[in-house]
Here is the input.
Amino acid sequence: MAHAAHLSFEPGTAAKKKGRGAFSNQTGRYEPEVRETTSDGWVPDEATPLRTEVTQENAKKIVTFNDSPFVGFDRSINPYRGCEHGCVYCFARPTHAYLGLSPGLDFESRLTVKPGAAQLLRKELSAKGYKVRPIAIGTNTDPYQPIEKRYGIMRQILEVLLEFRHPVSILTKSDTILRDLDLLKKLQKHDLVRTLVSITTLDGALARTMEPRAPTPKKRLAAVQALAEAGLPTGTVHGPMIPGLSDHELERLMEASRDAGATFVSYTLLRLPQEVGPLFEEWLEAAAPGRKDRVLNHIREINGGRLYDVGRSRGGGPKGAYAELLDQRFRAAKVRLGFCEMPVPSCAHFKVPATEAPQGDLFG
Here is the structure.
């Protein structure tokens, strides 16, 4: 399979803000007014950075439960809304529309932090009747995105999980996870943690274009190595695999992960729900115009002629020849490289910490 050439933006394409993944800020589907872009011949300065704005959310709950047949967990935590990594393909972008914001540039520049997350978590885990199962973190937006260095919400959450001996599975693109190695190793003493690092490509130029504020592939592989050497159950997620653009890298990604110390592995195929489709098409037109038709044709073949079909992309519906071939390649490489099945953190050690004893009976 031919390797993709390094990508570069071509003159005349839409202006792109420095350090951002999306090109535009299209209207979210719930907004009462629709914004349309027109050209007056003036080209804005790409080099002018778009500043990140952070607002605080007074959340009432922090653990989200689901009964979706499309995911392998029934509860999750998202410390942040939006993600500064700016991955243009991110399937979580449409969630910003619920806030009255755009899944485009707003998603990566207008973020929400939940400062009361740790207190809420302690309360919810202490609730009578709570039944323990692993909590997934990083399945929507990244808990170790750049603003975590400032707010430390993820570290506070880990402290509570350790206090309760609660199992957790963490997925991230960031080597910032190494900041919390001390807590992660304490969790692992009770078999409570599983760590996964997402690595989309080994091509630094492609990563910089698609995932402008995420750590480089080399840094992510170094994080895998550090986590594995610390004795943590460590795996990698390779995706989204982009048909006709990055799919040729699958086996190389798996080999690099194995060499770094990962013991389990998975992959995902590109999904383009809601507003992600137009944003990704816009990016393809600018970054890889010669591959645009090929990529989109593959995606439509996977989705039964559309850019996105939930039953085919996430469910058990037919995927088509391309997706079947990719899955065969993955399974063969997984066996050849000696990867094991993904471990499940233990629920056996969960306990609600004792609170301070109430004042004794004065007349007892």
About this structure: Residues 1-6, 8-14 have pLDDT under 50 and may be disordered.
